[in-house]
Amino acid sequence: MTYTVVVLAKAEKYLIKLEERIFDNISERLGGLEENPYRRRPLVDIKKLSGFKSPPMYRLRVGKHRIEYFVDESQKTIYVTNAFLRSGDSDYR
Questions:
Q1: Residue 18 and residue 76: Cα distance in Å, rounded?
Q2: Using one digit for the tens of pLDDT, what is the confidence trace for 6-22?
Q3: Whole-model pTM?
Q4: Residue 37 in domain
Q5: Domain range holding 61?
Q6: Could you tell me if 59 and 52 are in contact, meaning their C-beta atoms sit under 8 angstroms apart?
Q7: pLDDT computed for residue 93 by the predictor
Q8: In the predicted model, is pLDDT for residue 92 greater than 80?
Q9: Is the residue at 58 inside a domain?
Q10: What is the pLDDT of residue 52?
Q11: Which SS3 state, helix, strand or coil, does residue 84 take?
Q12: What is the three-state SS of 8-72?
């Protein structure tokens, strides 16, 4: 039971501007979501974001970078909606 990761335009625009080393690290962590997009494990810090009912949103932490995504269970697809560099407490809704 693996999922497919789809990176939407807003997140892709941010990710392609990153250094290759950082981009590779984030890509590796996104690949790890294919097995289980809900469970935390070493080097993969996942948190369910509050304020989202349908669909529930999740946050993946990779160093100072944050990746927001939601999961479509019917299609077994993970949609990455936003990626950004965390700058302070005001970054989260």
A1: 28
A2: 999 999 999 999 999 99
A3: 0.87
A4: yes
A5: 4-87
A6: no
A7: 53
A8: no
A9: yes
A10: 79
A11: strand
A12: CHHHHHHHCCCCHHHHHHHHHHHHHCCCCCCCCECCEEEEECCCCCCCCEEEEEECCEEEEEEEE
Considering its fold, how many domains does the chain have in total? 1
Q: The tokens of 74 are what?
A: 């019917």
pLDDT 10s digits, 25-80: 999 999 889 988 998 888 778 999 988 778 899 999 998 999 999 999 999 999 99
The two structure tokens encoding residue 78: 């993970």
CA 52 vs CA 2, 8, 44, 55, 68: distances in Å: 24, 18, 21, 7, 12
User: Could you tell me the two tokens for 28?
Assistant: 């590796």
Pairing of β 45-48 and β 77-85 = unpaired
pLDDT in the model for residue 89: 62
How many angstroms separate the first and last alpha carbons of the chain? 31
Domain of 83: which CATH number?
3.30.2310.20
Q: Has residue 55 been placed in a domain?
A: yes
Residue 92 included in any domain: no
